[in-house]
Hints:
The structure holds 3 protein chains of 3 kinds. Chain A has a single domain (2-173), classed as Beta Polymerase, domain 2 (2-Layer Sandwich), CATH 3.30.460. Chain A is 17% helix and 19% strand. Chain A is built from 4 helices and 7 strands; from the N terminus they run H-E-E-H-E-E-E-H-E-H-E. In chain A, strand 6, helix 4 (122-133) and strand 7 (135-138) form a beta-alpha-beta unit. The longest helix of chain A is centred in the middle third of the chain and has 12 residues, at 122-133. The relative contact order of chain A is 0.11. By secondary structure, chain B is mainly alpha-helical. Helix content of chain B is 48%, strand content 12%. Chain B is built from 17 helices and 8 strands. Chain B has a 3-stranded antiparallel beta sheet. Chain B has a 3-stranded antiparallel beta sheet with strand order 6-7-8. In chain B, strands 4-5 form a two-stranded antiparallel sheet. In chain B, helix 4 runs antiparallel to helix 11 (266-290) and helix 6 runs antiparallel to helix 11. Chain B is globular and about 80 Å long. Chain C is an alpha/beta fold. Chain C has helices at residues 3-17, 23-36, 49-57, 92-101, 113-117, 147-163, 177-183, and strands at residues 41-45, 80-84, 107-111, 138-140, 169-170. In chain C, helix 1 packs antiparallel against helix 2 and helix 2 packs antiparallel against helix 6. The A-B interface holds A 23-26, 28, 52-56, 58, 60-61, 65, 73, 75, 79, 82, 84, 86, 119-125, 128, 132, 145-151, 156-157, 163, 169 and B 1-2, 52-54, 57, 59, 61-63, 65-66, 97-98, 100, 222, 224-228, 238, 240, 245-246, 335-338, 340, 347, 349, 351, 353, 355, 361-362, 364, 366, 370-371, 373-374, 403-404.
Amino acid sequence: MSTKVLARLEQAFGASILETHDQFGDDTAVVDPSRWLEIARFLRDDEACSMDHFIDLTAVDYLGRAEPRFEVVLHVRSIEKLHRVRLKARIDVSASDDAADDANAETALARIDSLVSVWPGANWFERECFDMFGVAFSGHPDLRRILMYGEFVGHPLRKDYDASKTQPLVEYRAAANEKLPPFDQHEGMSFGRQTHAQRPAARNLLGFETPGLGED
Amino acid sequence: MEPLDVELSEGELELPNDPMQVLMGPAHPAMHGTVRVVLELSGESIRKADVQIGYLHRGFEKMCERGTWTQCFPYVDRLNYASPLLNNVGFALAVEKMLGVTVPERCQHYRVALGELARICDHFVCSGAMAMELGAFTPFLYFVKARELIWDIFEEETGARVTHSFGRVGGMASPPTPAFKEMVRSSLPAALALLADGEKLLMKNRIFLDRLENVGVMSKETAVSLGWTGVVLRSTGVPYDVRKVHPYMTYDRYDFEVPVGTRGDNYDRFMCRAEEIRQSVRIIEQALAMMPDEGPMNVDDPRIVLPQKDEVYSTIEGTIQHFKIVMEGIKIPAGECYSYTEAGNGELGFYIVSDGSGTPYRVRIRPPCFASTQGLERMIVGAMVPDIVPTFGSINMIGGECDH
Amino acid sequence: MSSSISAAATTTLVLEGSEQGFATTRFEDVLNWARKYSLFQYPFVTACCAMEFMALASPRFDMARFGAEAPRFSPRQSDLLWVVGTISQRQAPVLKTVYDQMADPKYVLAFGTCASSGGFYDNYTTLAGIDKIVPVDVYVPGCPPRPESVIDGLLMLQDKIARGDRTAGVVKPRFDPVQLRRKA
């Protein structure tokens, strides 16, 4: 049904629609990032599309698999016409601010227009995308981190961010891993105020002899 | 990092009172879920609010890129931990959409029944917590008791009380127990009775009503453009329920209604939830009636579904099949897909990208309450400080889901 | 119990009982006995374990039976900190502040695997166990733990308070069913 939307987009924007497909039944259009905002506004305002329901905005990092590296993915639907469409734009870390050297590679941003003026709901989704992938949305009213904290360096969902690299805010205690009692000492409610030394010989209420887990 | 306590020098001990900055959260007793609201107050009314989330960001999406597709299920469980089975089914459906398989009918009814039970729990938790935060402790106890009845069924079926990890790609972890239908049929009336008891206590309570009615009002148009879905959207009058509008599994075969509000205030949201519990009970009854007692539970495809344990131990084919699925993971065809289901809070979407291997390349969750929470700011600016509590309670922000 | 009063009382008694060495121990026993049955708790509830925490507070499991009924939402009035759920790196300073604000004597119970060790969230954002930043008295493993095991942990904590034992303890099965079967 919504192939109509794709046809309508191709008719209106022609060469700016780079490719379309409907794999698994999801209609998808890859568009020219420079016309991202324009196409989004068209989708909302055009009568045949009327995509008023904002659903999702995210990005995918195809580091080393595709050029340009990032794909910004937008899902919208129409409340009235019940169709959906997925819009994608491929962008790369911008080379304009000369940040290509290694020190800045982690924090270098990719740029695309913000959609907050079209769907206010894009606000947090774009902030999240900025936080996780380092995609900067020009024209966003309040672009700052949302899930991570301000001191965090880098963008964790980029493929080159090591998943286990933490950046703690609080100094860890010196004796953080003080040894726990070995597993064969019986913890728990002591029946009749026994010490650990007395425990192994004790019988519990069920009448079982309590075998040590670390024994034999 | 935002300041935890506003630092003041000696001369500034006189607090600036207009505007006054107040940090509400992230460990605030009346905010179930870890969220911080930075308020700028003039007297008791709110001039500006900044809702800050992310205190429960656990890296769900990054973790999913590290294991096999099947290993995502435990993480999916802990997204919306008030209704884990709905998440399980949602993720399973997304992967099945890419594989192009459909589970047998018996399994579909089973998934629906379990999912709706989970939805009932979700609504009980939300309504109960909301009432408790407004000082009504007894209904909370009633609702938790009702939830406890349903959890007994879950425990019997899945072996766990909260986090079941029961869904599988191409089916469920195990078929229903012989007593499943009987258990559900005997527990649901008791749960409904408890719901009625709780409602009786609340619906004649002047304090409760005054704090709900015409508080946290949201208009239809704003809600739609903010990306709201689920109960919060329906309370504004938009009848969008994925189960009705884009039916998946066997939802098109059940007879049920979608409750819709009129004003989009806290009262509407509360009542929509209560009514949805009753509608879910209707769906469960129909699903149980349609569910055959015999028949296959999982799809018949050795590349997707694990073999029976006795086969693994006794035949070489079974061992190899088991090994391939566990060690390499299920091979999902390369491509991308967006699959959406109606979860406890609204449209739970999974946008998954596969490169054809046994490990997800990218799993994106579209959390329904992420969008709802972003509307909180609009609902509380101009209101009073105590209005935050019922408003926040009624949008049912679940940390695990909202913060990924 | 206000810590300043108890500390002052202990000090005077130590001075008085220093000749006999008798009154001091007895008094501390009494004090610990009172402490263990009047745990004012601060539930630092963040994640999935909150679901079980609700169950624990509700009639079926009812932890009020064990003298841990009253939640106090001010850290300054509470002496048992329940850390219920995952603590992220962003949340960690908050937890530290809450812990620092609590009055002595204070106890910490790590509710669930995430609070105890970080659980299966071994990644950039999750604190691998709250014992990295605050000392823990009792660990209750489980994801989330069953209410029974939390009650077990609570009883263990009370037992530790009574004995004046501040080493960390873990809730675990009292006996291993496999080994029992092997012996039988």
